[in-house]
Design goal:
The chain is an alpha/beta fold. The protein contains 15 helices and eight strands. The radius of gyration is 24 Å and the shape is globular.
Length: about 350
């Protein structure tokens, strides 16, 4: 039997824990007769499970009648991708042909006799979505790992126009906090500030323990010990499960969970933590360095030696929380949110 866990990003592993409440909430909003919003932005630290959540929602909508789901990428010409995908669906080809929507000048489809070709993509999409609305279709655009580049800014501007015209287009985006923040700060795209943002919290360690117990046929204590090592971090759930399967279940290289710690740390560091650490702004890195040295601390004891005002510390605290790097659940205190981050990051600070 293959290892049901995965170390790869961007793909859906065989074993994962669904965020049922978030999935149901977004599905209920999008599928209601009069949706209260048409856009959701999902943010979280690398490995928080953003792609799995996006895929789960997209999969559920694809099963529904009159829903079309289009997966696209910030590295692509998004507008062309959407127009071409819609035209590629056979039932819609007939619909667009009957409406005399000729996209041949854009390199999409064939020329339609007696029609005037459309020469720009925004107009093409308006025409396509207007016809889809008449037939009660709804379209979800799913973009994973959004970034603030020309493709995304152009698409977002056109998307805003389609919404103003009350056309049936929905948008689900995932991205790191800093990328979503940069995009919504664009002067022409401030409408994204009003879009609901879902910041992914850690998974339930209870759910993780149940999952490990079922998959590996573990006793209660071992399942709980494994779950505790993940601290609810979705990627850590995958890494520890993968290593346990490879080293204890499959090849029997190890006998005890503690024997996996070094490889667990190395994998988290190499795949995620190094990138997180070295991309952090300097002040945020200094705050985390204090926590790495001391563990959970009062916010006052962190900001004073760093010469930060209350207002400045509040801003950095919020940024680090939204990045998924600190736990603020204990009032007036900060602690590190990611599992084994303190032990790993200790090698990078002076």
């Amino acid at each position: 039997m293959e290892n049901p866990f995965s170390l790869s990003f961007g793909s859906e592993p065989k074993e994962y824990i669904l965020r049922t409440q978030q999935i149901d909430s977004i599905l209920e909003t999008f599928t209601s007769e009069a949706p209260s919003c048409y856009t959701y932005m999902i943010s979280g630290v690398r490995g928080a499970g953003k792609t799995v959540l996006l895929s789960s929602i997209a999969d559920e909508l694809e099963k529904k009648k009159n829903w079309i789901v289009i997966h696209t990428s910030p590295d692509m010409d998004i507008l062309t991708s959407i127009a071409a995908h819609l035209y590629s669906l056979k039932p819609l080809q007939c619909l667009f042909s009957a409406a005399k929507i000729d996209l041949s000048a854009l390199g999409i489809g064939i020329s339609i006799k007696g029609s005037t070709p459309v020469y720009d993509l925004p107009t093409a999409l308006e025409k396509q979505f207007a016809e889809l609305k008449k037939k009660n279709y709804r379209v979800l655009i799913a973009i994973d790992e959004i970034v603030n580049n020309a493709n995304v800014k152009t698409f977002a501007g056109v998307y805003q126009i389609l919404l103003r015209k009350k056309l049936p287009v929905f948008l689900l985006m995932t991205g790191l906090y800093e990328n979503i923040n940069a995009l919504q700060n664009e002067k022409t795209l401030t409408f994204l500030y009003r879009a609901p943002k879902l910041y992914l919290e850690p998974l339930s360690t209870y759910s993780i323990a149940r999952s490990y117990k079922r998959i590996f046929q573990l006793d209660e204590k071992t399942a709980r010990d494994m779950a505790a090592l993940t601290n609810g971090y979705a990627y850590a759930y995958q890494v520890l499960g993968y290593l346990y399967w490879e080293n204890i279940i499959d090849k029997k290289k190890c006998k005890e969970l503690t024997e996996l710690i070094d490889e667990y740390d190395n994998t988290l560091s190499e795949y995620v933590y190094e990138k997180i650490w070295f991309e952090l702004p300097e002040t945020e890195k200094k705050i985390l360095s204090v926590l790495v040295r001391n563990g959970q601390m009062k916010i006052q004891d962190i900001r004073t030696p760093l010469s930060l005002t209350d207002a400045q510390m509040s801003v950095y605290r919020d940024r680090l929380k939204r990045r998924g790097l600190v736990d603020v659940s204990r009032y007036g205190h900060l602690s590190l949110a990611l599992p084994r981050f303190r032990e790993i990051a200790a090698y990078w600070i002076d």
